[in-house]
Amino acid sequence: MSSTATAVRGPLVWFRGDPFLAGREETFVHESDGLLICQDGLITAAGDHAALRHLIPPGTEVVHYPDHVITAGFVDTHVHYVQTGIIAAFGSQLIDWLNHYTFVEEQRFSDAAYARTVASSFCDELLRNGTTTALTFCAVYPDSVDALFEEATRRDMRMAGGKVLMDRNAPEPLLDTARSGYDDSKALLERWHGKGRNLYAITPRFAPTSTPEQLEAAGALWREHPDALVHTHVSENTGEISWVRSLFPDRAGYLDVYDHYGLLGHRAVLAHGVHLTRRERDRCAETGTAISHCPTSNLFLGSGLFHVHDAKDGRHPIHVGLGTDIGAGTSFSLLATMNEAYKVAELCNYPLDSVKAFFLATLGGARALGIDHQVGSLEAGHEADFVVLDPRATPLLAQRTSRVGDIEELLFVLAVMGDDRTVRATYVNGALAHDRDAAPGPSTA
Ligand code: GUN
Ligand code: ZN
């Protein structure tokens, strides 16, 4: 943890509430000349520079980012670090894609050295994209979980993840058993959950790859450790949904499988949810279960269009965050993910504005993971994870952003045109963790 103070000046943007449910004035904060003061990894003050400058600890150098936009570090609510190597695998929908590409690649993680290399580049790639927290699937192998948390710890990131549970319908080398999956998950949870900034997620892959016994054991483990997360997939693809019905004929539907085994609730994050019924969405709302909206993946695999406005319906709103879903997703960038979320919403006749999109990528994601008291906001008391966006990152972006009329339009252009080049700097726990313009280190070749 940083023991020195950090002070950063520039335009600030963050959220105090959910703009899907309340007005801009109550939920959205914009300081055109803001100041952020951080001490020992926490934000101690955020607001107008002129009003707060007297709080800057003596001797602290103020880093000034004029004409940038500083916001909370992005939260990726669904990603598979073990699929980093298979982004852009051609030509299949979900089940074929899993069999042809994913299950082949994930077997490589039986090699702990390979896991370490990928975990390291994964964490670097998150930071290059302004993502300071991710909820990630690991492989079935416990070493792949150690590799992730060790690399995240080296970078001081708030990271959530877990070992995949799979005891059927996958290649034999990837299978655990209900007993070994429970034992391994429990040992990993006890080793990593709450250690430093790490959080453990109990991670059944999806209903088709777990027996009822394994789902029962996963539910039991969550009851023993209710402050851990649960992370899985739901209702992504219509063929997958039919398969779940045939595997679990006694259950009312896909969501009811997880409900039956005690896997819904606050801090349970279900990826996709594209085809959830209204009744299932209501059940998510009732139980506090969150959905990770993964637009680049849903388009890439031809899974369908997630209706974000139905999920945030005022009568039964669900916690929703954005997920890149690498490697079915096609970009690590939450800006690129907002761009696709906007287009998907347009196809559903819903204008997803920039304020709502940035909420989903920051505080909305933190709420989905149940850590909004810690990350996802620049409000004093939060952990000092933030990102500095550059509206002039490319000539075209500079041309376009020079014409914007207000902060909402600027955020919209950043969301639609932005990518990793737009991330000028990423701060983690109060310290600079990625500087786009830093001189490259010495070549090791
Ligand atoms: N459903 C079960 N496993 C996966 C996976 O690895 N990726 C996606 N997109 N969906 C899944
Ligand atoms: Zn996924």
UniProtKB/TrEMBL annotation:
UniProt family annotation: Belongs to the metallo-dependent hydrolases superfamily. ATZ/TRZ family.
Keyword flag Ribonucleoprotein: no
Cofactor section: Zn(2+)
Pathway it works in: Purine metabolism; guanine degradation; xanthine from guanine: step 1/1
Record key words, sorted: Hydrolase, Metal-binding, Zinc
A Pfam match: Amidohydro_1
Family matches, as NCBIfam families: guan_deamin (TIGR02967), PRK09228.1 (NF006679)
Keyword rRNA-binding listed: no
PANTHER family to which the protein is assigned, alphabetical: GUANINE DEAMINASE
GO cellular component: cytosol
Function field: Catalyzes the hydrolytic deamination of guanine, producing xanthine and ammonia.
CDD domains in UniProt: GDEase
The Amidohydrolase-related domain, residue ranges: 69-431
Cofactor: binding details: Binds 1 zinc ion per subunit.
Name this polypeptide is given: Guanine deaminase
Catalytic activity: guanine + H2O + H(+) = xanthine + NH4(+)
GO biological process, any: guanine catabolic process
EC number: 3.5.4.3
InterPro entries, per the entry: Amidohydro-rel (IPR006680), Guanine_deaminase (IPR014311), Metal-dep_hydrolase_composite (IPR011059), Metal_Hydrolase (IPR032466), Metallo-dep_hydrolases (IPR051607)
Example GO molecular function: zinc ion binding
